[in-house]
Write a structure and sequence with these properties.
This protein has about 750 residues and is mainly β. The protein has twelve helices and 50 strands. Among the domains are: about 110 residues; about 160 residues, Jelly Rolls (Sandwich), CATH 2.60.120.40; about 45 residues, no CATH class. The mean pLDDT is about 85.
Length: about 750
């Protein structure tokens, strides 16, 4: 018996009304396009029971209770076996003879629509406040050990505009006398944790073996431009201007410096960061919110007393470090009733977190005094002082993790991962908001083997078609063009994006057009700091200007590579001393800082590296995640079969698109099932593609490299040899050496 429920309400059906269902996954051309299973339209009678649910849809002038704009949960079942879950849509209302009515429906299998549910929000909108932390040496070191936020954050050392270089062996890039600031390091956020948070905020849950382990070492660079790290406190939020509510009279002489304590922050004065402790609280002290460069401006307006003048000295004083910045010293000896009118702007002063800043004065003669005009105003003829300018924080600020994420849409981040790793998103049969996410190859490998040989209807035509018409003349996989030095160099000299991969098929006379799969990420290419052996990502603008800061950086992904050997000197927590280590943090496109053949590469195609490697990894994004799909499409043995099968309701309800369907002597996977009528269990049309297995790109496949970069290859029988053909050597991006009658293959040397 066929049963339809809408929002858990039973709907009465016509006994003889056919309901044909179709199920589809994806086709070979659009590998992960969102495709929903669906029913053909069918009618239900507007019985008294059905009208209780749909309302008076047969009355033209009455607004029905059914809202055609809203999805309604639907389930079709046959003999208690669910055969389609999703939602229903009313297509038409038919009224016969003015009294009988039918409602025409279509049922769609619910698919996950991440694009719809995630929306146009940016990565900076994701709530990652739980990961906010203070920028200091302790937390940077904890990130290297994997203990900061349980490894969700790692601090790397890209060059963000410093233009580091080493001038000779004795002149180190950084040293105890020139240590790195904490802000010179750059945080990276674990990609899988960001992905999980985005899906959670959109109302999704998921299971994934791939995300649970394979991507733990993959990180997104937290960078939006500039040379430091964005904190919850910003220069614009930490400024202040304080002044005098009224004239301050009788500032008497003192041989030692004395703080002025009458400052006020009440309107029209302001203290946006809450850093000033005004006179009402017994202080008149500015507390430095984070380490950085601060510029102060002081406007003094007043007059000396009627006695013999004296020398007046003013200064900005740091009570924490007992250091000061002189404002002015002026001698009024022999002068009376002399006006004081000075505006002084300090140079940029490097101050530490929680330094206490006050304004002080002194006069040598205790019998003398002077007055300062206030009048509760910020004007040239009043007295006030302000924090005029603050640099980006170099230490001590609370790092705003969300605020440091690159300028990127959330859905573009998800889409980028999908394109890199050829991911499929499979909704749960019972809950469309629960997804199974795996690379396509892993998903298909998880399927169950089923023998349908005896279910095929041999009385009907079996259509066998090659994939020739589905093939494009050229497929291209690529990241986006970065504008940093190295990426710009590749684009300029090679007219392509670093790590691009192309599949060309000039032999197919019927192939036409180009297909391009492009992520919104730029390649995270590592190269040496000039004159050194430090391999870092040089995030420098390709310009001859002194300012090398990249103004519009694209988002970048990289693997955490632990800490290679290299002396590193940086400020301690208090910025009062230097911490020295013998390793430095490295993140790169490779899964190991000194990769070999068996490691992973975030490029689609093998590239000549810009730092020393043992060997280019075989596992590029294309080779590891896309090659089997391309082989399935382009192989001369590739076939699509369309045939008719007799399938039961139970078989329809339990099949998966990952299942391996055995027919006679070959395995296939299902692309679609069409025109299934559960009431008759008639023969259905099934479209399948032949499973080809692992097809070698070349007769020999690289498996290892020795310390000299010579590549060893495997044969189809499993043997290992150190010689190879030129074709196979160059096919994987290595250099062929045929000198002296040899056939050796070597790693391409760094550029």
């Amino acid at each position: 018996m066929l049963r339809l429920t809408l929002a858990e309400n039973d709907i009465e059906l016509y006994q003889n009304e056919p309901i044909n269902l179709s199920y589809q996954f994806s086709d070979l051309q659009e590998i992960n396009a969102s495709r929903s299973s669906f029913s053909q339209t069918f009618r239900v009678p507007l019985t008294k029971k059905n009208q209780e649910y749909f309302g008076a849809v047969n009355e033209i002038g009455i607004i029905p209770t059914w809202n055609p704009k809203v999805k309604v949960a639907a389930e079709l079942s046959y003999n208690t076996v669910p055969i389609m879950r999703g939602f229903a849509q009313v297509k038409n209302i038919y009224i016969q003879k003015g009294r009988y009515a039918d409602v025409e429906l279509v049922v769609f299998g619910e698919t996950a629509s991440l694009s719809r549910d995630v929306g146009d929000g940016m990565l900076s909108d994701v709530d990652l406040s739980a990961f906010n932390h203070v920028l200091n040496a302790t937390n940077i070191e904890a990130s290297w050990a994997g203990t900061l936020s349980s490894g969700a954050i790692r601090y790397g050392l890209p060059d963000k505009g410093h233009n580091w270089f080493q001038n000779g062996a004795s002149a180190t890039i950084w040293s105890a006398t020139n240590p790195l600031e904490h802000g010179d390091f750059t945080p990276y956020f674990r990609a899988s944790k960001l992905f999980e948070t985005i899906l959670t905020e959109a109302g999704y849950t998921y299971d994934s073996t791939f995300f649970g382990s394979n991507l733990d070492a993959l990180y997104l660079m937290m960078y939006r431009g500039g040379t430091s790290v964005i904190g919850t406190q910003t220069p614009s939020t930490e400024r202040m201007t304080v002044g005098l509510a009224s004239n301050l009279t009788g500032l008497t002489g003192h041989a030692s410096f004395t703080s002025i304590t009458a400052w006020r922050e009440a309107t029209p004065f302001y203290d946006t960061g809450g850093n000033f402790n005004d006179a009402g609280s017994g202080g008149s002290t500015y507390t430095v919110p984070y380490r950085g460069f601060y510029t102060f401006r002081i406007n003094l307006f007043g007059r000396t007393d009627d006695a013999i003048g004296d020398e007046i000295t003013m200064r900005i004083h740091n009570t924490t470090t007992a250091t000061e910045q002189w404002l002015f010293m002026e001698d009024y000896a022999g002068e009376v009733f002399n006006d004081i009118n000075h505006t002084f702007t300090s140079p940029a002063l490097l101050l530490n977190t929680n330094d206490q800043i006050v304004i002080q004065y002194k006069m040598q003669n205790a019998g003398h005094s002077f007055d300062l005009d206030g009048n509760n105003a910020i004007a040239q003829n009043t007295t006030w002082w302000q924090v005029l300018d603050i640099s980006e924080a170099t230490s001590g600020q609370t790092v705003n993790v969300s605020g440091n994420l690159p300028d990127m849409k959330k859905i573009d981040f998800i889409s980028g991962l999908q394109k890199m790793f050829n991911l499929v998103f499979i909704p749960d049969r019972n809950n469309s908001k629960h997804l199974y996410i795996e690379p396509l190859g892993d998903y298909l490998a998880s399927g169950t083997k089923k023998d349908w040989t005896n279910k095929i209807d041999l009385s009907k035509d079996i259509q066998v078609e090659p994939t020739t018409d589905l093939q494009a003349r050229r497929y291209e996989w690529t990241h986006s063009n970065g504008k940093d030095l190295v990426n710009a160099l590749v684009q300029k000299n090679a007219s392509r994006t670093y790590g691009r991969y192309r599949v060309n098929d000039p032999e197919n006379d019927f192939a036409s057009g180009d297909k391009k799969i492009q992520t919104a990420f730029a390649p995270h290419v590592v190269s040496y700091i000039p004159g050194s052996q430090y391999a870092v990502h040089r995030m420098l603008a390709d310009t001859t200007d002194a300012d090398k800061t990249l103004k519009d950086p694209l988002p970048r992904l990289a693997f955490w590579n632990v800490t290679p050997t290299g002396d590193l000197d940086y400020q301690n927590d208090a910025n009062t001393g230097v911490t020295s280590t013998t390793t430095y943090p490295m993140l790169s496109q490779f899964s190991n800082y000194f990769p070999t053949v068996t490691n992973d590469d975030l490029s689609f195609g093998a590239e000549r590296p810009f730092h020393r490697v043992q060997a280019n990894p075989l596992n590029t994004l294309y080779y590891k995640y896309w090659r089997p799909w391309v082989n399935e499409l382009y192989s001369s043995d590739a076939r699509i079969v369309t045939a008719y099968f007799r399938l039961t309701a139970s078989e329809i309800a339990t099949f998966e698109f990952s299942d391996k369907i055995f027919i006679k002597d070959t395995y296939f996977r299902i692309l679609s099932i069409a025109n299934y009528d559960p009431t008759t269990e008639n023969i259905v049309q099934v479209r399948l593609v032949k499973i080809l297995g692992d097809i070698r790109d070349c007769y020999y496949i690289p498996v290892s490299a020795d310390k000299n970069g010579q590549i060893s290859f495997s044969t189809p029988s499993g043997g290992t040899l150190t010689s190879a053909t030129r074709e196979c050597c160059e096919r994987y991006g290595y250099v062929f050496d045929g000198s002296g009658g040899t056939s050796r293959c070597f790693q391409n040397l760094p550029q």
